[in-house]
Amino acid sequence: MQNKKLSMGIMQPYFFPYLGHFSLIAAVDEWIVFDITQYTPKTWMNRNRILHPKAGWQYITVPLANSSQSIKTHEARILNIDETKESITGKLGHYKKKAPYFNAVIALVEEVLGSSTDDSLVYLDVKGLAAVCRYLEIPFNYRICSDLKLPLPDKMGPGQWALEICHQLGAAVYVNPASGRDIFDPAEFARRGVALHFAQPKEFIYNTAPYHYEPNLSILDVLMWNPPAAVAHAVRNCLEIKAAS
To answer: Were both Cys, which of 14, 36, 113, 182 would link to 85 (CB 3.0–4.6 Å)?
Structure first.
């Protein structure tokens, strides 16, 4: 029998996302990597932001061999993982003499971006999520949607995917970032027996001297400046979850 008390999060695969993404992972029992819809170029799926050595921020990017809206997310393929690793570790290099946890973080990045025979962007993103969760000792119970082969309807609105997946997998609670509130119908969720909750992250501000602090950067920036225990505490406490009204 499926666990009807199961809480679930369903999100696209993101590349070393911001801290709030990990807060959502930590807040649910199971995480579904949502990779079955149209791929959207120039999103957080293949890039994120870190501090720039002079001012502001810069992108770190995973170039794709087939970046196009004509493919599904799970079909996205990395162009060259070795060149990607060289580029990203190079851009992170300016943290070395300034950020106290540089060595631990660069080792984590090198592990994730290590040469692989699998060129799937989804698997790379999931590998990054899993590595950060291990580093922070946060459970990461996930399944990849395309692997599940769920019998989903051919046509659904943006707010219906999560409801249908939760219903088929036996989740009783679905938690979504509050920024997406407008696409969901709480009454429809209630009719199907799934409680709809929204999560609002709280900003975690930390010292990045001699740089100017920039909000909502990749988790890599957070990890560079803070011990794992402090980041794990922030992950677990920087999220306010409320039932949809």
So the answer is: 113
Residue entry with tokens 């011990």: 227
Distance in angstroms (rounded) separating the CA atoms of residues 84 and 16: 14
**Beta pairing partners, 11:** 33
- Is the entire prediction scored with pTM above 0.90? yes
Q: Which of 216, 244, 239, 180 is nearest to 11 (CA)?
A: 180
Q: Can you tell me the distance from the alpha carbon of 13 to that of 34, in angstroms, rounded to the nearest whole number?
A: 7
56-95, pLDDT tens digit by residue? Answer: 999 999 999 998 999 999 999 999 999 999 999 999 999 9
Torsion of the alpha carbons at 173, 168, 140 and 106, rounded to the nearest 10? -120
- Those residues whose C-beta lies under 8 Å from the C-beta of residue 231, and which sit 6 or more positions away, are 19, 136, 219, 222, 223
Whether the Cβ atoms of residue 27 and residue 4 lie closer than 8 Å to each other = no
What integer pLDDT is reported at residue 116 of this predicted model? 72
